[in-house]
Specification:
The structure is a homodimer of 444-residue chains.
Chain A (H helix, E strand, L loop, with lengths): L1 E14 L2 E13 L2 E7 L8 E6 L3 E5 L1 E6 L15 H12 L5 H17 L2 E8 L2 H11 L2 E8 L6 H13 L7 E7 L7 H14 L3 E5 L3 H11 L3 H7 L7 E5 L5 H8 L5 E5 L1 H6 L7 H6 L3 E4 L4 H4 L4 H16 L7 H16 L16 E5 L11 H7 L6 E6 L2 E5 L2 E2 L4 H8 L3 H5 L13
Parallel strand pairs in A: 1-4, 1-5, 6-7, 7-8, 8-9, 10-11, 11-12, 12-13
Antiparallel strand pairs in A: 1-2, 2-3, 5-14, 14-15, 15-16, 16-17
Helix pairs in contact in A: 2-3, 2-15, 4-5, 12-13, 13-14
């Protein structure tokens, strides 16, 4: 028996950076994996316990958000039109002083709700009170790679605590949850702290999720202060001995690229173009990165910089941004944008063999996208429409780990009314900014 | 009696580049104009012939698309990942060789359908067979400023023909349709043709809608060939004696800006950031333009470069693009982005006193935007949410010239099924690219 049969779908297929939409396919799921993809009719529907008619829809891998601070969705719209120093020092680190653990439980659910509606089935989240985040993920039915953020100033003892978090949650929820060490950044963690984090990661077999070289200014400041780039600092401190998810690296130098390209352990870059544009951080040159074989995935970052957790936007801005940056419209093509959004994001997320591709044997994280909207017609190119026309509201149905979690835009795991009812009374407290109470100072 | 009463809406108000959402307002319409905006309850609902409950929704001016080639929506997705030379010479000008007048009628309806769904109530369209476009606008109930495109190579006789078009349609459909002369560009119209167009415009009291300085390369080519920038050519030929809608001007020089800032006749720039990014054209520096008092409006350009006709995208990319371009996140703020999308787009469109603002006496082009989506919650800032979170699918109801043309996403003027049924059989012919049949060669 087949547990779920998706019938009459187009199926997005990416092979060697070529993209096509296979017409008229059925997808059979057994348990949490894809058993078979075959021309419509080849699989007897009476063999399926349940089925979904996806006529007029396209099946593609669920989006993987490779870098976020999901519960920050609580504060969206509160740090606008300011540069990064002010954004941290006048807004974020005061707002975050208000955070209590239960806020993370509800803020995480809110962000997961938004991401499910946009077809995002996995997120690498870097935040605080992550036991609460993990419980939200358990409930949502999505996939997450969770890291409990650490500032060096909070003491070396954190490393044991967050290692315990990793051991508590890695592999939980039937494998949907993975956990990872998450020192914040080289500008908030000193070398001893980074070394201790790297050592602990090796000891417990964990990866590391860290911010580095977020801007060119950070790289310049690090060079001026100590003669090393932030990436060189991470290398020196042994961070790259563990599989590493590197957020941003907008300020990476040519030498940094060589370091990253030569690593034996996997390293991936989370690219969050909406946040970069909004905070005027510049873009990294993904064409060069990718030519060196460095994996790049899509990220939203937090919603106080990005405003949404929508990876359709991130995919579109990745393509548009690289064309503008390089002055060459042949760069970052539609197949490349789709590859970054799927296959490569799975690599950056650390599950390259299981995610990011619809094929027999892969985990069943599948979204069904309606292409019948006026904004897609005439559907002269399905792949162009995915990159340049589709929007979150086109996502009709979301399947994660073989389970349907949104069906024709109806949520089957999370309760929007309950989430709103629990967040609304928290907002008066959460919106306060007490100048004395910043949890950090941004001074890279 | 009031013809239509919109109750319980938030109302977007822009004054002196400050933006706010007034809560709990009712809007009374009489005929095609706004009679009164007042706190909810101040207007007796029994005085209204019809009413709409807009609880949870925001009323704002319909978007004005200041530069498009709407019927090109027929070809969306067919000119991807190529630079501008190839885009024109290998794609557009071969595809356009297939065009018959009836295609424009249906292609225009298709684009208007998409724009209505995205809350666009007016468009400055620059294309061919514009009698057919005008008939589509009559039917759609939207507003349009229509220009019949002219290439110099097609002979001076066109000017009389298009002047006749202007006189036939200007003021039609109860004033919803205006018409304008539309020589294509200085690189496709020689000086004599431009002078004759300018002369005709003055003679018949028409404005001019023209492409110029689309890229820096065009400006360089013009300087190398004749020692003048494209903007200087237009000035020399008298184009600016008529009110002018200038598409793009990405390649305008500092001297060009001075010319434009000093004009006595109104001149406005249509800014189409998605197309600029997609074709790697660079951005113009709107911060400098606006400091000189030059009006800037939002445009989509055609959907073969822009893929959609969605001005939410254009507004967002305008803000994000200027922050990136200038390296300063304090530039192009949320109120400025909203001002460009409303008040200034109305100026560029040539109806600054009637459009782009919700206030008593203005024309009633109003859209109702649903802010209850998960991607807006918590609604910490309505204005931030409009610029950075809202999407076309949030538009629920569209009113143009006092008439409801889309109600809770149901079209009341155009018939999507009819449009699709009429376009589908045309597409095999329309998609052909016969290398011998280009209507022009791009060689600026």
């Amino acid at each position: 028996m087949v547990d779920l049969l998706i019938r009459n779908a187009k199926v997005l297929q990416l092979r060697d950076e070529k993209a096509q939409a296979l017409p008229d396919r059925d997808i059979a799921l057994r348990g949490n994996r894809i058993e078979l993809i075959a021309p419509t009719g080849a699989i007897d529907p009476s063999r399926a316990k349940k089925d979904i008619d996806a006529d007029g829809q396209l099946a593609m891998p669920g989006f993987i958000n490779t870098h976020a601070h999901v519960p920050m969705a609580l504060w969206r719209g509160l740090g606008e039109d300011v540069n990064i120093e002010s954004w941290f020092n006048d807004y974020i680190w005061h707002l975050e002083a208000n955070l209590v653990p239960e806020d993370v439980y509800w803020g995480m659910q809110l962000g997961l709700l938004e991401m499910i509606e946009a077809g995002v089935t996995a997120v690498a989240d870097h935040y605080w009170h992550m036991d609460y985040a993990a419980r939200a993920v358990e409930k949502a039915g999505t996939r997450a790679l969770l890291g409990q953020a650490m500032f060096g100033a909070n003491g070396i003892g954190q490393i044991e605590e967050t290692a315990a978090f990793v051991q508590r949650w890695d592999g939980a929820a039937g494998g949907r949850i993975r956990a990872i060490l998450a020192p914040h950044a080289p500008y908030t963690c000193d070398d001893d702290f980074l070394r201790a984090s790297a050592h602990k990661a090796e000891q417990i077999g964990s990866g590391i999720h860290i911010h580095a070289a977020e801007t060119r200014e950070q790289t310049q400041a690090s060079l001026a202060r100590r003669g090393q780039t932030p990436i060189e600092v991470l290398e020196d401190c042994g961070i790259f001995n563990a599989p590493t998810l590197l957020a941003h690296a907008v300020g990476a130098t040519a030498g940094d690229l060589e370091i990253l390209a030569d690593l034996r352990t996997p390293v991936g870059i989370a690219h969050c173009p909406k946040t970069y544009a909004k905070l005027a951080m510049g873009y990294n040159n993904l064409v060069e990165w990718r030519a060196l074989g460095i994996a790049v995935g899509l990220g939203s970052d937090g919603a106080v910089s990005n405003n949404t957790l929508d990876l359709w936007e991130a995919m579109r801005l990745t393509a548009l941004g690289q064309k503008q940056l390089t002055g060459d419209a042949e760069n970052l093509t539609i197949p490349q944008a789709l590859t970054i959004a799927t296959v490569e994001s799975a690599k950056v997320y650390g599950q390259p063999h299981d995610l990011g591709d619809l094929a027999a044997g892969k985990l069943a994280d599948i979204i069904l996208v309606d292409l019948s909207g006026t904004h897609h017609f005439p559907l002269n190119s399905v792949t162009a429409s995915l990159v340049y026309n589709a929007r979150a509201s086109d996502v009709r149905t979301v399947i994660c780990d073989g389970q349907v979690i949104m069906r024709e835009r109806e949520h089957l795991t999370l309760d929007k009314d309950e989430i709103i009812a629990n967040i609304a009374p928290r907002m008066e407290r959460l919106r306060r900014r007490d100048a004395a109470a910043g949890i950090q100072t941004y001074k890279p």
